[in-house]
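Inverse folding, one chain.
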């Protein structure tokens, strides 16, 4: 028996329509009986025939609705490049032109802050960067090979940063890139064991503020420690066996027995001996740096341990002359 519903269900599967003979064949009926039915008043507001004698549903939305019953497979989002994924402020980074990048600084010759670079690198875009460390060279050479950047500069952008005891300081980040998708990323290269140095933390905080205000990405990273970033180091999970080392000192401060506690590399060497079967020394040191960053303690040594539980000012003989 021919019914409107049977024909409708069939044509929903064929958005481009079918000829009467094709409809009859698919329904297993004679076209002789089908044609009069298609032209009947019962069907005139449901089916329509075009100039090629192809019948389809008059209400196209029904076909669209039918097609959408099975959701289309969405194309997979391209996987983010592993190095770019380490940047902070990615989602808020604005799109920048090459002119925006070039107007940030004179990239033609980035000068080493030490004045004694170990190597000058000329990037593919023609900029020269004076490098003070093999770590900087390693990242620059990798980025040049990576295919994810359209321009690289360095040691030319000036960022102001305050410290606890000096209000105005300036530094130049090591590397600045323009990615292929037109985002600016600023990279400070530091050994992981130097990331807890108070001046490096103050630089990082100033870099974060500068980038968030200007819509740039940023990171502090150590390529020689599996490209660990400052954020990854700060967010490491520190075992209780390490935390309890500091418990007596923290308790003494909390009850007012002392105002200031201090420890250095000799103390760390002593603390490591009882736990050396649990940690590699390099891992132990990194966990200590992580804990110190989390606590906000003050490190006066630029590559290791010389810590105070609060900001201090030292004289030339490393005696504490002021603290906060």
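Residues assigned per position:
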């Amino acid at each position: 028996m021919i019914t409107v519903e049977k024909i409708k269900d069939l044509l929903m599967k064929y958005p481009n329509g079918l000829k009467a003979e094709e409809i009859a064949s698919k329904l297993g009926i004679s076209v002789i009986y089908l044609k009069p039915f298609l032209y009947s008043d019962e069907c005139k507001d449901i089916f329509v025939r075009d100039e090629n004698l192809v019948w389809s549903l008059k209400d196209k939305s029904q076909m669209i609705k039918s097609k959408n019953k099975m959701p289309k497979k969405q194309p997979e989002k391209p996987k983010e490049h592993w190095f770019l994924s380490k940047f902070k402020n990615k989602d808020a980074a604005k799109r920048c032109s090459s002119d925006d990048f070039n107007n940030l600084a004179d990239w033609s010759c980035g000068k080493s802050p030490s004045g004694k670079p170990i190597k000058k690198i000329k990037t593919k875009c023609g900029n020269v960067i004076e490098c003070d460390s093999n770590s900087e060279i390693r990242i620059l050479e990798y980025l040049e090979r990576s295919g994810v950047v359209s321009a690289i500069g360095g040691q030319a952008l000036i960022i102001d940063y305050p410290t606890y005891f000096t209000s105005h300081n300036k530094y130049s980040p090591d590397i600045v890139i323009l990615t292929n998708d037109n985002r600016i990323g600023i990279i400070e290269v530091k050994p992981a064991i130097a990331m807890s140095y108070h001046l490096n933390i103050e630089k990082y905080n100033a870099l974060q503020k500068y980038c968030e205000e200007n819509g740039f990405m940023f990171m502090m990273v150590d390529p020689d420690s599996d490209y660990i970033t400052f954020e990854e180091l700060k967010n490491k999970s520190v075992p209780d066996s390490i935390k309890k080392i500091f418990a007596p000192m923290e308790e003494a401060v909390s009850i007012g027995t002392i105002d200031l506690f201090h420890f250095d590399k000799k103390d760390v060497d002593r603390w490591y001996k009882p736990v050396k079967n649990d940690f590699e020394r390099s891992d132990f040191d990194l966990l200590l740096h992580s804990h110190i960053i989390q606590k906000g303690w003050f490190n006066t040594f630029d590559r290791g341990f010389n810590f105070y539980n609060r900001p201090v000012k030292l004289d030339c003989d490393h005696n504490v002359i002021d603290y906060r």
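The CA atoms of residues 39 and 267 lie 97 Å apart. DSSP finds twelve helices and 18 strands in the chain.
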